[in-house]
# Entry
Amino acid sequence: MSATAHHPRIEPVKAPYESALEEMLKRWMPPGSPIEPLALFRTLAVHDELMSRMRPLGAGILAHGRIQPRDREIIIHRTCARTGAEYEWGVHAIAYGKPLGLTDEQLAATVNGSSDDSAWSERDALLVRLADELNDGCDVPDELWTELTARFSHDELLELIITAGWYRLLSYVINAARIEREPWAARFPGN
# Structure
C-alpha cells in the first residue's frame, strides 16, 4: 500500500513548536538541515515520549552502524518497497541511496526486481534475499544464513536484521497513519 493516496489519519504536529519539541525535531534531522522536519518525525511527535525513546535506535542505525552504508540502504530500500512504504523509500532514495552510489536501475530493482536482477552483485543479491525472507517469513533459511555468514560477521548480521525490522516498523507507522509523501522525495518507479 502506498501512503500517498490518502489524507493523514494522524495529523503531524505543525509549527510553531514548543521549544522542547522543536529541539527534539532538530535532533531527528541532519545537523543544519534547511528543510522542515519530515512528516514522519512530526507524526511521531504526536507521542513525544515514545518518539524520544525511538530516536537512539534510528540514529544508531543511520550513523553508528557496523555495516557498510550502501548495504544498509539496500536492506532499507527493499524492506520499504516490500512493505509499500513509498514515503520512506523515496526519502532514502534521495537522501542516502543516490549519494551512496545506488543507480536508478538498482533503486528500481529494490521495488520491481528480484535478487537475481542483473542490477545486483552477488553481495547485493544476498541482501535483497535477506530482506525478502525477513519480509515474507520473519526468518532466514539455513541455506541463506550459510551464504550470509560467508560474507558478514554475526554482529553485522544482527544489524542487518534489526535494520530490516526497524524499517518494517516505520513502514507500519507510515502506511497505517497515511503519512503524506515529502514533495521532494522520489516516487516508486512507475508512479
About this structure: Residues 6 and 178 are 6 Å apart (CA to CA). The radius of gyration is 17 Å. Residues 1-191 form a domain with the AhpD-like fold (CATH 1.20.1290.10).
